[in-house]
Amino acid sequence: MHKKLTVAILCGTLAVASAFAADDKKGEALHWGYEGHAAPAKWGDLQPDFATCKLGAEQSPIDIRGAAKADLPALGLAYTAGAAEVVNNGHTIQVNLSAGGTATLPTGAYQLLQFHFHTPSEEKIAGKSYPLVAHLVHRNAEGKLAVVAVLFKEGKENAALAPVFAAMPAKAEDKAPLKDGFNASTLLPAKLGYYAFVGSLTTPPCSEGVRWQVLKEPVEISKAQLASFRKLYAMNARPVQPLGKRVVQESK
Question: Residue 152 in contact with residue 134, Cβ under 8 Å?
Answer without folding.
Answer: yes
